[in-house]
Design goal:
Blueprint: H1 2-24, H2 30-47
Helix pairs in contact: 1-2
């Protein structure tokens, strides 16, 4: 599941860059570029939080015994 989310996040990140390049090349209209970048940005922000570390926060860790 984590691999799938990381893949989706990577594709979405690419989807924020490629439309601007295609617009500069004259292949896309400005409206199409903006919509593609908006959708890719939303997908990226939705996927990235679930790709993070799975380690517990420092407050939740149990302190080591100091024997």
């Amino acid at each position: 599941m984590k691999l799938a989310l990381m893949t989706i996040a990577a594709i979405a990140l690419i989807g924020t860059i490629v439309p601007s390049v295609l617009y500069l090349a004259g292949t896309l209209s400005k409206d199409t570029m903006q919509w593609l970048m908006l959708v890719a940005t939303i997908v990226w922000f939705a996927a990235v939080p679930f790709c993070g570390r799975s380690a517990k926060p420092a407050e939740a860790r149990q302190p080591a015994d100091a024997d």
